Amino acid sequence: MDNCIFCKIVAGQAEASIVYETERVLAFMDLVPINPGHTLVIPKEHYPELKDIPPDIGGEIFQVGMKIEQAIKDSDIPCEGTNLLLANGSVAGQEVFHLHLHVIPRLTGDRSGFRFNSVNRSMPGREKLDQMAEKIRMSR
Ligand SMILES: [Zn+2]
């Protein structure tokens, strides 16, 4: 993809601080980190969203994310907890449409915007939860 910054990084046409690399996956430092150590894990091939990506590459991205997460904790980078976050679609906060997994060190009081909250959050009860489970089971 000609105008994709992540493809340019993979091709060596744009600068990045590389952390780790396999044949199919690349990890590098986020240019605008939420906290120091914020790393992105991407497939080397251009896949815009999760639906586009072969399951085995999706699995490898998560495995590399786990490795990076542990490496951050084992380093002297301040890290009290982590978020592994994949934003899929603009409504979910995706800005670069080359799929990427964020590995984000979290610190007390860092006030990052991500919270388990929305205007739709509620306690729907077992019947509605069972209905949702059924819908997802049926459309697999
Ligand atoms: Zn790309």
Reported for the largest beta sheet, the result is: 5 strands, antiparallel
Please trace the helix and strand order, writing H or E for each element: HEEEHEEH
Q: Please list the strands of the largest sheet in the order they lie side by side.
A: 1-2-3-5-4
Bound ligands, each once: zinc ion
The name of the CATH architecture is 2-Layer Sandwich
Share of helix, binned: 25-40%
Quaternary state reads single chain
Strand percentage lies at: 15-25%
* Number of helices, where a helix is a run of at least 4 consecutive DSSP H or I residues: 3
N- and C-termini, Cα separation: 30 Å
CATH class type: Alpha Beta
The dominant shape is globular
Q: Kindly name the structural category.
A: alpha+beta
The beta-strand count equals: 5
What's the domain count?
1
Mean pLDDT: 93
- Radius of gyration, in Å, reads 17 Å
The CATH topology assignment is HIT family, subunit A
Summarize the helices and strands and which ones pair or pack:
Elements: H1 5-10, E1 18-21, E2 25-29, E3 39-43, H2 55-74, E4 81-85, E5 101-106, H3 126-138
Antiparallel strand pairs: 1-2, 2-3, 3-5, 4-5
Bound molecules: zinc ion.
Report on the architecture of this protein:
The protein is of the alpha+beta class and 140 residues long. The protein has a single domain (5-138), classed as HIT-like (HIT family, subunit A). It has helices at residues 5-10, 55-74, 126-138, and strands at residues 18-21, 25-29, 39-43, 81-85, 101-106. Strand 1 and strand 2 form a beta hairpin. The two termini are 30 Å apart. The mean pLDDT is 93. Residues 1, 4, 6-7, 46, 98 line the site of zinc ion.
